[in-house]
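Me: I'm a chemist; would you kindly supply a protein sequence with its structure tokens?

Assistant:
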Amino acid sequence: MEVTASSAFYAGLGSIQAGQNRVDQAASQIANTSVERSATSAVELSLGKAQVELGGKLAKASDEMLGTLIDTYA
């Protein structure tokens, strides 16, 4: 498999989307369940947040790398 800047960018976007889905599910579970289950959902909420943040960093780094490979400021 060839790794390119665009595939890294899309991997970052996919991570953001997966993290957002995790956050949505955890928030829904927190709103609808008991205290014991809410603790597990709070962990999932935190994991989703971290996944979104890392996906954003990956997408940004890929975009910056592509900008240095193709001089768009010339």
Remarks:
- Helices lie at 5-32, 35-69.
- The chain has a mean pLDDT of 83.
